[in-house]
# Entry
Amino acid sequence: MASAFQEHKDELEHFEQMFGRERGRLAVSLDRLTNALVLVGQHGVYCTSQRNPAVPAMDLRIINQELVHAKELVQSVMEELRRAKLEGEIKK
# Structure
C-alpha cells in the first residue's frame, strides 16, 4: 500500500500550492476524513444495531463520532493558521 504522500501526490501538490504546505496537507486530510465519514455512513445503512435496526451498529457510531471529532480538530488548526497568516500580513 502506498503512503498518503504517494497516493495523493497530485491533490497534495495542488492544495500545498494554493494554501501553503501545512494548510494544504490539512486540507487533503479533511478530504480523507470526509471520505471516511461517507464510507462509514454508507456501511451504516447495511450494518444496523440489533437492538434498534433504525440506527447503525454501535461500533460504526463510535467510528463516525471519532472521525467527526478529528475533522473538527483539523479544521480548528487550519483556522488558527489562517488567522496567524492574516495577522502577520496586517503587521507588515
Summary: The longest helix spans residues 58-91.
